[in-house]
Specification:
The protein has about 170 residues and is mainly β. It contains one helix and eleven strands. The chain folds into two domains: about 40 residues, no CATH class; about 120 residues, Sandwich (Immunoglobulin-like).
Length: about 170
């Protein structure tokens, strides 16, 4: 593309300056700009087609759902986002998420069974569980079993005071 091109302004009969019309073929460097735009558009399209998002899918729980945040909170759900890359999409990164919103459970209880194939490996997270309590361990087994474990110092209390409202994320 040429640099330092002098731009001449045309004048009408009354001496006012105006820009003249130009054809695209008369613009220096337009081909490179247009090709750059096409390449950018294609790469955005490629990126959009290489990401698959399941969206939030609710799962059923055994204990009652937690009504504490019922009006402005989330429900129990799972989500999977897969980004495929490589020349033929043979490589992938999978990001998984789970939302847990339950109450009234006991130590060691299996609170849900996630769909087959969602879990590849066992994952363990800790969730806060209310004022003055130790965190509750949330375990998701490779077979999809979702279990909760309460710290021994909090096991003697009422199961109604046990609640979890949390979202966990991991990459596979």
């Amino acid at each position: 593309m040429s640099r330092d091109v002098e731009i001449k302004m045309a004048r009408d009969q009354s001496g006012e300056q105006f820009y003249t019309r130009a054809h695209v073929d008369g613009l220096d460097g337009f081909e490179e700009y247009y090709q750059w735009q096409l390449d950018l558009q294609n790469s955005i399209y490629d990126l959009a087609t290489s990401i698959r998002d399941s969206g939030w899918i609710e799962y059923q729980v055994g204990p009652p759902k937690n009504g504490l945040y019922a009006t402005d909170g989330f429900s129990c759900g799972i989500r999977e986002i897969v980004h495929q890359y490589g020349e033929r999409g043979e490589k992938r990164i999978t990001r998984k998420m789970i939302r847990v919103n339950i109450r009234n459970f006991t130590n060691g209880e299996q609170i849900a069974q996630l769909p087959n194939g969602f879990m590849k490996y066992t994952q363990v997270f800790y969730s806060r569980s209310g004022s003055g309590k130790q965190p509750i361990m949330v375990e998701i087994r490779g077979n999809g079993a979702l279990n909760v474990y309460i710290d021994s110092s909090n096991q003697s209390g009422s199961s109604n005071s046990n609640w979890i409202y949390a979202q966990f994320e991991w990459t596979e």
